[in-house]
Design goal:
homodimer; 273 residues; alpha/beta; eight-stranded parallel β-barrel; two-stranded antiparallel sheet; 47% helix; globular
Chain lengths: 273, 273
Amino acid sequence: MNFSHHLRSIQRTSGSLLCIGLDTDPRRMPRILAGSRDAATEFNRRIIDATHDLVCAYKLNLAFYEAMGEPGRRCLKKTLAEIPDGIISIGDAKRGDIGNSAESYASSLFDDYRFTACTVSPYMGEDSVVPFLRNTERGVFILAVTSNPGAKDFQYLNVRGRPLYEQVIAKSRRWNTKKNCGLVVGATRPKELRRVRELAGNMPILIPGIGAQGGDLRSAVRFGTDGRGEMAIINASRSVIYASSGGDFAGAARSEAMKLRDEITRHREKLLM
Amino acid sequence: MNFSHHLRSIQRTSGSLLCIGLDTDPRRMPRILAGSRDAATEFNRRIIDATHDLVCAYKLNLAFYEAMGEPGRRCLKKTLAEIPDGIISIGDAKRGDIGNSAESYASSLFDDYRFTACTVSPYMGEDSVVPFLRNTERGVFILAVTSNPGAKDFQYLNVRGRPLYEQVIAKSRRWNTKKNCGLVVGATRPKELRRVRELAGNMPILIPGIGAQGGDLRSAVRFGTDGRGEMAIINASRSVIYASSGGDFAGAARSEAMKLRDEITRHREKLLM
């Protein structure tokens, strides 16, 4: 199934635009998992068990898993195997390299790990992005406006009267010949998100930065969704997975995820009234 | 030792600005290694054995190793263990992510793999780069002008009368408080390389794109080095490591590397006359 159709379909069946970011840090594991041989995988398994009916996607930032070395790699694979069919898995890798290297990265993320989608960095241009876009079933989210303070260093530079990120969007639209390309816009940037949605048509937008990073949920829904209140993937990571460090961490994650999902639903309902 | 001093020192003791890119692709292994249980590692070991007196650095593009899955990870580590002390190892990873993720990537590259240096992508700005710069012994090469066709998509966009990459250089200089920051400029961009060297003072410049990508060696030396004919790291990958697919592949790599090193030396001598 084409990635955009897949996304629309899971957002409809789940009734959710929520994505949970499994930014799993072995130093932050609840004490109850201290005896586990593979605490990070067990942590992810319990979070997924407790939340999979509330989300359209899980996002795994590869930085956290690579920092664990080889066990991190195995944890990634085991975690991906826990995600139920239909739910989208996003490899948040932000790769970007020349053509033949980009092909290798795409092969790693899509063929070896078997993520449904990934994030890529635009700085190196077309031949660094296109290898990821070849398989129409796999989604590719190109960094446009990021949620971090450093976003201002380059993304907002004035190019012919417009910020640089608008050039990224224009090019991304051109590269999106297979309808599997999306954009990343931080939830901490509501004004920019509104503008990106205007420019991006109904491309999917991945919106990180809710929760620990302080992004605004109402704006994420209002400005991030397309005309049908869909195609925004709203990600929260630390605020959900570390909602509690107690024995009930998975239950606490579920409560937090449910709160977010319901809040998103309320904002969508207002939008579609 | 501070990274810049380290680089200057190895370039003087080796008499070489050459870096060999170990872009090792299991599908391109010489037939003589067909019986080997770990052909990629054996390939790298033989290339390093045959060339280590001719180079100041080896560059390993992580894309190739990640595409191999877990064996690629082990191959990376074993290969790094083969590189003699003093020679710089560059993890060509082009990472770029928000602060806490960037810290994880830095930890993976510098603490787990123990690369001497790495490459990073600038698109996400200061907090995505600074975590890599914390340890003054480790070098960080920020992508400025890349060798691939897609470089034109964003890097050359006009920002206040100057190409975007000049903004990257200006910021990089500001972030370079520990004298361990360098830049990446493709050898296919001689005019831009000249300009980058003017702007970058004596920052190290990593120059890929010699050989298979068609970059010009004379310009790389002439425009890439600092006033002392140093601080350029000139990288060739495929043209060296795949110089022959026969049983003598390591000897052929040595011949090719020696030719490049000597040609670089001749250009340096002309420059310093």
